């Protein structure tokens, strides 16, 4: 079976505050509790007489001679009545500063709420010191950490020189009701761009590739290491030294079945975003193993193993299925062919035929190989050896794994794939005819 070796990658109060009333003049001390002048104080009533009576016979004084006339009594009452009214005016005059002070205090409290409390509740920024001069037209990288709200995003954009004013940005976010749609991640932004454009970019999600790592289907551990070195400057040698199953089996029990202490087949192909993180070999490996675990949650390997045993009368392990999937990944270029190609390999395994996959020799050689290499007997050469290779030969995608779990039911033992041309055959003669019939 043959196929071009290369495969194109697919692909957030008290008044005044003191507790004291305002100062008012003290009232004059009075000696009797009345407001009558001392010279007109009414004498004490005689026993049996009602005090303060103004009958025809005037009451006598304590000296027994001086009477109080009704005119005098009326004048006295008028004087007392006048003093009572005077006290009423003084009471209202004393209350006036309290009323004015209360209004001033209320206004002060309202002002504090407007200046301090409301901006904190709404996330708006004060205009004082909010403006800055920026150089427009420059492309900058800005990382928005996970969980950032609008205020934190505004600060990040302001610090990076993308926006002139935090408050203007926040006001536009509120006007467009966009706060809940702003996403974290790393962005390539143009300084001085319109607020609407910036908000739209933040709503669509990260657009920078500065912190992303893309691993296509079919990458080996060595190729992953090279990609990590190219993207993050981490030594490929350090990465491959770290990429051992024994380093991670305690946290990822599925690695207990891994052979040769290899993570081959388990670094799941995907685009990863490491924005805002300190990228290390360990972080990349753990992220990819976690993704493999997540993707495999929908695969019932036990059911697949039982089905394969029933169909081909052979015992398979999860590692075996992953190995078949990895060879399928390297031998096909179309999802439509995967289950059919998988059936060819299982049919050959069932009758003891060598798989004769060029891809396994390419893995052993690390790339291109010659016709002579196909005669070099080694455990990766499926022309000279029967059975599966010691480990998977790459990290297969989900489609290839599904095909290996449930291959098509066929009688094919041969296939030929070249570009858009593919042919499946039951006999070697048919296979040769298919090769001869390929478009030139």
UniProtKB/TrEMBL annotation:
Residues 21-37, 63-75 have a biased composition (Polar residues). Keywords: Cell membrane, Cell wall biogenesis/degradation, Lyase, Membrane, Transmembrane, Transmembrane helix. Gene3D superfamilies: Endolytic murein transglycosylase. It is found in: Cell membrane. Its EC number is 4.2.2.29. Pfam families: YceG. It is a single-pass membrane protein. The record marks 331 as: Important for catalytic activity. It catalyses: a peptidoglycan chain = a peptidoglycan chain with N-acetyl-1,6-anhydromuramyl-[peptide] at the reducing end + a peptidoglycan chain with N-acetylglucosamine at the non-reducing end. Functions as a peptidoglycan terminase that cleaves nascent peptidoglycan strands endolytically to terminate their elongation. Belongs to the transglycosylase MltG family. HAMAP family: MltG. This is Endolytic murein transglycosylase. The lineage of its organism: Bacteria, Bacillati, Actinomycetota, Coriobacteriia, Coriobacteriales.
């Amino acid at each position: 079976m043959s196929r071009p070796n290369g495969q194109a990658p697919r692909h957030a109060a008290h008044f005044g505050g003191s507790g004291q009333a305002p100062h008012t003049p003290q009232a004059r001390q009075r000696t009797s509790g009345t407001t009558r002048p001392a010279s007109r104080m009414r004498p004490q009533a005689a026993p049996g007489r009602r005090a303060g009576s103004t009958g025809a016979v005037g009451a006598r004084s304590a000296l027994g001679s001086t009477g109080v006339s009704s005119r005098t009594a009326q004048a006295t009452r008028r004087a007392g009545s006048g003093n009572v009214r005077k006290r009423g005016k003084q009471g209202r005059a004393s209350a006036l500063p309290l009323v004015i002070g209360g209004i001033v205090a209320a206004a002060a409290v309202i002002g504090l709420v407007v200046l301090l409390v409301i901006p904190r509740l709404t996330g708006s920024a004060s205009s004082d010191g909010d403006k800055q001069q920026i150089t427009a037209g420059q492309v900058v990288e800005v990382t928005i950490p996970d969980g950032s709200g609008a205020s934190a995003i505004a600060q990040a954009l302001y610090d990076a020189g993308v926006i002139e004013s935090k408050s203007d940005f926040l006001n536009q976010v509120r006007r467009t009701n966009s706060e809940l749609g702003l996403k974290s991640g790393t962005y390539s932004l143009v300084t001085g761009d319109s607020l609407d454009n910036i908000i739209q970019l933040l709503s669509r999600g990260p657009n920078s590739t500065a912190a992303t790592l893309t691993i296509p289907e079919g990458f080996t551990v060595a190729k992953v290491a090279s990609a990590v070195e190219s993207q993050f400057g981490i030594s490929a040698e350090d990465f491959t030294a770290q990429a051992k199953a024994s380093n991670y089996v305690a946290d990822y029990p599925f690695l207990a079945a891994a052979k040769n202490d290899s993570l081959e087949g388990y670094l799941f192909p995907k685009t990863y975003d490491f924005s805002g993180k300190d990228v290390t070999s360990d972080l990349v490996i753990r992220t990819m193993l976690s993704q493999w675990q997540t993707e495999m949650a929908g695969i019932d390997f036990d059911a697949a193993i039982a089905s394969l045993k029933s169909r081909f009368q052979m015992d398979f392990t999860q590692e075996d299925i992953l190995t078949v999937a990895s060879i399928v990944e390297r031998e096909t270029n179309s999802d439509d062919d995967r289950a059919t190609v998988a059936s060819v390999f299982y049919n050959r395994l069932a009758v003891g035929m060598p798989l004769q996959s060029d891809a396994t020799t390419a893995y052993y050689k690390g790339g291109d190989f010659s016709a002579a290499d196909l005669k070099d007997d080694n455990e990766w050469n499926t022309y000279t050896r029967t059975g599966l290779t010691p480990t998977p030969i790459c990290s297969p995608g989900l489609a290839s794994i599904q095909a290996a779990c449930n291959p098509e039911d066929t009688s094919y033992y041969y296939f030929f794939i070249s570009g858009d041309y593919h042919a499946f055959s039951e006999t070697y003669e048919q296979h040769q005819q298919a090769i001869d019939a390929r478009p030139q």
